[in-house]
Amino acid sequence: MKTEKSYQRWLFFMKFGKRLGCHQMCERSFHIKGYQFPLCARCSGLFFGQFIVAPIIIIFTSFNIWWLNLSLI
Fold first, then answer.
1. How many CA atoms lie within 13 A of 32 on its CB side?
2. Can you list the alpha helix ranges (DSSP code H) found in the chain?
3. Which pTM does this prediction carry?
């Protein structure tokens, strides 16, 4: 029963990754405990990089918030 629940959770995240625009090629993706990561290595780097850089730009620069929004598009 536990494996069925984890499989359903994995399917949910895989569909979410697909909606984000990731190609999800198996040979370019990370695997955790036999499950493919929902984002490939390239997309993971892009998304995590944006989440890390955005607060750094806000804290350490005097950018206008509108420029930051334009850079994340």
1. 8
2. 2-19, 41-60, 65-71
3. 0.58
Residue in the block written with tokens 């190609």: 23
- Token code pair at residue 15: 């569909």
Rounded distance, CA 8 to CA 41, Å? 22
Residue 27 has φ and ψ, to the nearest 5°, of -75, -10
- The CA-based diameter of the chain, rounded to the nearest angstrom, is 53
Query: Cα torsion at 14, 18, 21, 26 (round to 10°)?
Result: 60
Give Cα 2 distance to the centre of its chain.
25
- pLDDT for the residue 68: 66
